[in-house]
Amino acid sequence: MLEGCWRNKSKENHMYYDVGYLIISIIEGFVGLVVNALRGGFNLLSVGWFFCKQSAQMQ
Predict the structure, then answer these.
(1) Which H or E run includes 39?
(2) Where are the bilayer-spanning segments (predicted)?
(3) d(CA 29, CA 46)
(4) How far apart are the C-alpha atoms of 49 and 38, rounded to whole Å?
(5) Alpha-carbon distance 52 to 46, whole Å?
(6) How many CA atoms lie within 13 A of 58 on its CB side?
(7) I need a labelling partner for 52 at 20 to 30 A (CA). Which of 7, 16, 17, 33 fits?
(8) 18 vs 14: CA distance, rounded Å
(9) pLDDT at residue 18 in the model
(10) pTM for this predicted structure
(11) Among the listed residues 2, 24, 21, 23, the one whose alpha carbon sits nearest the alpha carbon of residue 13
């Protein structure tokens, strides 16, 4: 009895689960992009700082 009731509920909620999953996927993708961009920016900064230090030592 309970199992049948739960099965009916899950059928109704299936669409909501799909939409939620889609939203979560989009958010995860966006966060991944932001993290990669930050990581790339940090790498660029540290490389730039390294070159500045090297050129300062050369002068």
Answers:
(1) helix 2-58
(2) 20-38
(3) 26
(4) 16
(5) 10
(6) 6
(7) 33
(8) 6
(9) 83
(10) 0.49
(11) 21
DSSP class of 33: H
Residue type at position 37: A
Alpha carbon 48 to its chain centroid, in Å, reads 26
Range list of β-strands (E), the chain: none
What mean pLDDT is reported for the chain? 82
Distance CA 27, CA 22 (A): 9
Q: What tokens does 50 get?
A: 């390294």
Residue with tokens 């299936």: 14
| CA distances to 19, 21, 46 from 33, in Å | 21, 18, 20
Collapse the DSSP code of 1 into the 3-class scheme (helix H, G, I; strand E, B; otherwise coil) and give the result. Answer: coil
